[in-house]
Specification:
Elements lengths: L9 E6 L14 E2 L2 E2 H9 L6 E6 L3 H9 L19 H16 L5 E4 L9 H12 L6 E6 L5 H4 L1 E3 L7 E3 L18 E10 H6 L4 H4 L2 E5 L11 H12 L26
Parallel strand pairs: 1-4, 1-5, 6-10
Antiparallel strand pairs: 2-3, 5-9, 6-9, 7-8
Amino acid sequence: MNENPAGPKVLAVIPARGGSKGLPGKNIRPLLGKPLLAHSVALAGLLGDNVRCIVSTDDAEIAGVATAAGAEVPFLRPAELASDTAPMSVVLRHALEAMEELDGTRYDMVLLLDPTSPTRTPESVRAAIDSLAASPELDGVIAVSEPFFNPTWVGVKPAQDGASHLERYFSEGTGVVRRQDVPRFMRINGSFYVWRSEFVRRLENSWFDEGRHGYAEIPETHAFSIDDEREFRLVEAVVSAGLAPLPGVDIPGAGAATGLTDGEKA
């Protein structure tokens, strides 16, 4: 259990390297009036005084935009940690160690807020932090959602023997004829992750395989990730229609989308 009455001391990290290939400049591209990463900065500002947020970037232009958005950029990320192949585990460990040295303090948790997943609510992120604080058996809590289709019974793949027919992807779908008869399927959507700092320090490669994780379920309509032009425009359209939240941006008619739903729980 968390022994700090003010809550665990959390370092929120927004990774925003330069050199994106899928959508160049995406981290600072305007999304409904604000640079994309600024939406994550705004969200972090709603999480409480026990959460300190920084932007980890190797790019001076991104650093300038982040600072203008109210973010802290206390260092520039080394070039070797800004390549396409650099593991996020190493990026987070670098940020944690750098900030603990600069601050002269120890953080209890590390919160990963990818700027390409702006449609999340502070309530869901706070719930994940609280859930991890209350669950000493867990190394982290991650965001998941239930997709609009269940791949257990509709997932297929080409026959592995080279034939032209299809085979089921999941054997559990054999004999199922109604979607109501399959168990729930949830996916890791990347909206946010919160880990204990000691787990980040020892993490080597795969967080899922190396730790024990709980989950914070959010609606699928809050679980977007922007990697290309189509997805960028899709998020703009969905938020503008009031179907997904964007904390810090006032979209007429979107109020209902910014609150918690029955499906959002820690």
